[in-house]
Each structure stands twice: as structure tokens, then as C-alpha cells.
Amino acid sequence: MNSREQDDQRKGALKQQLVNTLDYEQLMNCMRCGFCQPACPTFHQTGLEAASPRGRIALMKAVADGLMEPDEAFKQQMDLCLGCRACEPVCPSDVKYGQLLEQTKDALFEHAEPAGAIPLRGLHKFAKPIFKRHRRLRLMSTILHAYQRSGLQRLANKGNLLRWLPAHMQTMERIMPHADSRGVVKRVGGHRFEAKGERIGTVGLFRGCIMDVLFTETNVNTVRLLTESGYDVVIPKEQSCCGALFSHSGDRDTAREFAKQNVKVFGDAKVDYIASNAGGCGAMLVEYDHLLADEAEWVGPAREFAVQVKDISELLLRSQRWNQLPEAAVQSKTAAQPETTRDDTVTVTYQDSCHLRNVMRAGEGPRQLLRLIPDTNFVELEGGEVCCGSAGIYNLVQPQMANDIVDSRMEAVRDTKASIILTSNPGCLLQMKVGVEREKANDRIQVMHVVDYFAEKILK
Ligand code: SF4
Ligand code: SF4
């Protein structure tokens, strides 16, 4: 078979998979009202119908109806979608856009053009064992740690040795947090911790992969906040990555493998809740029942697992200790000067994690807590619910659109006059740091995870 025939065969198989797997009922549920358009960042940036949720659904339906080929233009619009799912909560027909996108991405991954498929599959093959076994991830972070701390990074930046990298990769390299190969377990010195004061329940900490080596301090603070709030905390040893990075690029088999491992180890740990401090991971975890829906033996345990998953803000809000904070704040305010003249009041704003808001539907939790924190002037970010452009590895594969989006987020940040931008997801945190760097505002604006901010303000 010559290469042209092979290509025709691949395109035919792609089309057939889309026809077979796209959920036609969901496609029909879209009544083309357009209520989702204003919520969509790619529509907002381009003004193109094809780059909107309604437009993408129409493209999927045209392929499913055999009216259109899943050609390069089709693929481009699917790739441009952030998967932020801001189109779901605003849809009056409850169209499950995220599921339609997954079905499309699965097919595109399965039948990718050889030029794109070989590097993508190679990358997945390389990354899978690293993300599956935490030890290996720690080894990688040791290498990064050595690069960052040995003076090599300083040398590389000073000598402009990384100029061969694309501009967005150079920015990413500069804003990357310091790696800590010890991870949370070594940092806190164990796998099990007792609640302080009255006990509310037992929480299993989902420590994440990137989270545990680049944001170790946030994981440490999560354990501290949970125990201080009345939870026993367990950190199951054999947990793996949530699988989101694989699932979002179409490799659902690897994501399923990771999901089964997590369902098993957290089930064995016999916890009441599973705490997530990363919106992207949490959203993946709460949909494990959907991911494993076709596996009779796993769907029940996956459902139990999914209902136990909570964002840390939801767990903290259940604690009596946080309900007592307003009293503490009032006492501290009346004991000092009026708020406007107090030097220790800091103005903060909050950039949503799309997946925390649109999938876990827990976007209000961090805001509620921020309103309780003493010495904090919390100013809402206009359009804070709009994706920042991070979206997993979107900012690496679609840098132009990601930059356009984060620049528009920074315009809104400017209006708040905040000196700290808070987020609930490591990817959003890095992307907002990119925004601050592009704005040349490093000396004025800090970006923090909400957990670290809470810990700084509450755990003296
Ligand atoms: S809001 Fe829902 S029903 Fe309306 S166009 Fe968007 S996806 Fe379709
Ligand atoms: S997931 Fe986000 S980017 Fe994609 S269509 Fe929905 S709102 Fe637009």
C-alpha cells in the first residue's frame, strides 16, 4: 500500500471512529441557542463561530452525519479548544460538551497523522512510567533541582544559552518553581497524621505528581491545614498521577490504568474524604466513574471514590475552626486602626481554576474562605471565571492563544490593584506567573496558591 492509500485508510478509520463513538444524543441536545458563546475564551479571542462551543458541536455533528470530513481544519478547532468546560454550566440543555470533546480527542489520538503521532505516542510512552511511579518522578525532579540549584540555570540565563528554545518555553523555564524531590511524605515525616482538637473525619491526601515535586510546600500546608481543622490525614503510598495529562490528549487507556490504581489504594486506606488541592486533578478524580463506566468490576468502586473527592476549600469550610475566624478578624480590626490605614491589610484577587469551577462545581469555596481571612481585602477579578489559558499543556502547544488569553486576564488584574493573585491549581498558578512576567510586574505582583496564603495567614 502506498503512502497515499495509507493516508486515505487512516482518514477513513478516523471518520468511522467519530461516527461510532460521538454521543449523538448529546449532539442533538444542542439547540444552537448560543448561550455558551460569551463563556468561551477562544470565541472571545477570535470571534469565530467555529472556535466556539456551538460551532465545535456543529462540526462534530457534521462529521457524525457524514456531511464533512474530519480534516485538518476540524482538528485545528478541536486542538484550539482549552477543554475549560466553561460552556457546560451555562448551557440550558445540559449538553455534556466535555464528553463530546473527549470522544473527539480519543479518535484524533488513535488515528493521528504519522508525523504527529510518532512524537506524541513517544512522549506518552516516555512519560507514562514516570507519572505512574512517584519514585521515578522524584528522580526527575532531583535532576531539575540540581540544574536549578547548581548555578547551571543562572549560567544558562546569563549567557542566553537557551535562546534556541521557543520564547514561551524560555519564559516557562524562568518562572518554574524550585523542584523539591523529597515530596510531601518526606517533608512531613510520615504517611499518617492525627487531627488537632475535635476530630471531623479521615482524609486521604491526593498529593498529585507535578504538585508534589514543584509545589511540595503547598502539599505540606494542605496537611497542616487539614489536621488543624480536625481531620486525620493519610497519604496513601502507592497512589499515582490522576491521569489528566494523558486523558486530555486522547490517551484514555493510560488514564484508566492510573484511575484503577488510585481507586484501589484510596479504597484500601478506608478514608471518609479524598482531598485535592489542584482543580485540574480534582476534576479528573471526580469523573473516574465516567472514565471506568464500561468496566463492570470497577464502576462501583470508582463511583464511591468519586463522591469522596473534595477540594480542600470544601473540607476546610466544614470545620468549626474556620467559622470562628470572622470573630478573630473582627477582634483584630477593632484592636487596631481603621482598615484603610492598616499597613498589614493586603489586597488579593482570585483567578478561578476552570476545572474546579466547571467540573467540581466548587468555585465558591476559595472565595468564601478568602472573605473570612483576617487582614485581607479580597477583590473579585472581573471575568475571574474565564480560563487563564493554562489548560494542562495548552500553553505549551498553543502559545499564541494562551498568551492572548493571559494578557487579557492581566488587564483585569490591573483594575483590582491586587498585590497577590491567588489560584487553586498549579497550571493556573504558572500561567498567571507568565502573565505577570509578560506584564513586567514581578516587583509588584506575587502569585500564590490559596492554600499557601491560608497557611501564611492562619497557621502562625
Ligand atoms: S448553550 Fe448549550 S444548547 Fe446552547 S448552543 Fe451552547 S451547547 Fe448548544
Ligand atoms: S471547553 Fe472552553 S474553550 Fe472549549 S468550547 Fe467550551 S468554553 Fe470554549
TrEMBL record:
Needed co-factor(s): [4Fe-4S] cluster
Enzyme class, spelled out: oxidoreductase
Keyword list, A-Z: 4Fe-4S, Electron transport, Iron, Iron-sulfur, Metal-binding, Repeat, Transport
Pfam families assigned to the protein according to its UniProt record, in alphabetical order: CCG, Fer4_8
UniProt-listed Enzyme Commission number(s): 1.1.99.14
Cofactor note text: Binds 2 [4Fe-4S] clusters.
4Fe-4S ferredoxin-type domain: residues covered: 18-51, 72-95
Record's catalysed reaction(s): glycolate + A = glyoxylate + AH2; (R)-lactate + A = pyruvate + AH2
Gene3D superfamilies noted in UniProt: Alpha-helical ferredoxin
Source organism superkingdom: Bacteria
Functional description taken from the UniProt entry: Component of a complex that catalyzes the oxidation of glycolate to glyoxylate.
Name listed for the protein in its UniProt record: Glycolate oxidase iron-sulfur subunit
Organism of derivation: Paenibacillus profundus
